[in-house]
Write a structure and sequence with these properties.
6 strands; disordered C terminus; two-stranded antiparallel ribbon; about 5% strand
């Protein structure tokens, strides 16, 4: 009986996908970035931790990295002359397109995380603010009590000392000694100490400050707002005391794309892995 020869499965060549749809890219990246986050419990006590997957380059970013390495190697060897200037300009356009695509891909991954983190902060903020408000209110009340208690003890000590001195002048040494002892042994209720629960409170002196005359504060304690200055210069301001405003050359690069295409979330002419290609073709 003749046996059939086993033939190797036909390999499907990678196809070049130009600007896959957002749905296709979302599906591909969701599969690419597995596993998801997980809660990890420590072996020996301690609090559980949320473990996120290690960040990896997406298919788009991996292709862009390869492209960037290639262009970088060419740039190192390129000598700009009249003959090679068009090539240099074309490479600048490619670099600009690559940066736009890379930034769009990065934003695609990081923006949802940042937005989600902001939503978590907003959900937790009311409870945090209520805890902090109660803590500040009660701390102030305890400190006020401590100050009033110390003030009352100081006044009582002064009165006992005065009485002890008067008794001593009258020759009643026993009464004078008793009053003086009472004055020196008086103690105010203190907030320092541990509680039965194991917690406690204490007092410490910390340095703080307040501005009483802004004009007298030395310059070393001020930070120049470069962002604000740059915005003012860009808006047309030509004179700022102590700052030189001047013109400088800057090479502008135009990608030649429309605004819609320039903001695309994927670069042109990028070969996706076979799995991503299949997902994209099904979308």
């Amino acid at each position: 009986m003749a046996t059939k020869k086993k033939t190797a499965p036909k390999k499907t060549p990678h196809k070049t996908i130009v600007n896959p749809s957002p749905k296709a890219k979302t599906t591909a990246l969701a599969k690419y970035l597995k596993p998801a986050a997980a809660v990890v419990k420590p072996k020996k006590g301690g609090a559980a931790k949320l473990q996120l997957p290690e960040p990896v380059l997406s298919p788009v970013a991996s292709a862009l990295l390869t492209q960037a390495n290639s262009i970088h190697a060419q740039v190192k060897l390129l000598e700009v002359t009249a003959a090679t200037l068009p090539r240099a300009q074309e490479m600048l356009v490619q670099l600009a397109k690559g940066l736009k695509s890379l930034e769009a891909d990065r934003q695609f991954l990081t923006k949802p995380l940042k937005d989600h983190a902001k939503r978590i902060e907003s959900v937790y903020r009311p409870a945090t603010e209520r805890f902090e408000a109660a803590d500040e209110l009660l701390r102030n009340k305890v400190l006020d009590f401590q100050r009033e208690a110390a003030k009352a003890v100081a006044e009582a000590q002064a009165q006992l000392t005065e009485q002890a001195e008067a008794a001593a002048e009258e020759g009643d040494s026993d009464t004078a000694l008793e009053l003086a002892t009472q004055a020196t042994t008086m103690e105010a209720a203190t907030v320092v100490g541990r509680l039965a629960s194991g917690g406690g409170t204490g007092l410490s002196m910390v340095s703080d400050f307040e501005v009483v005359d802004f004009a007298l504060v030395p310059d070393e304690y001020f930070t120049l707002d470069h962002k604000k200055i740059r915005a003012a210069v860009k808006a047309g301001l030509t004179e700022i005391p102590g700052i030189r405003i001047f013109k400088t050359e800057r090479l502008s690069v135009f990608s030649g794309e429309s605004a819609e295409k320039a903001n695309s979330d994927a670069p042109e002419n990028i070969s996706y892995p076979e799995e991503v290609e299949r997902i994209s073709s099904e979308a």
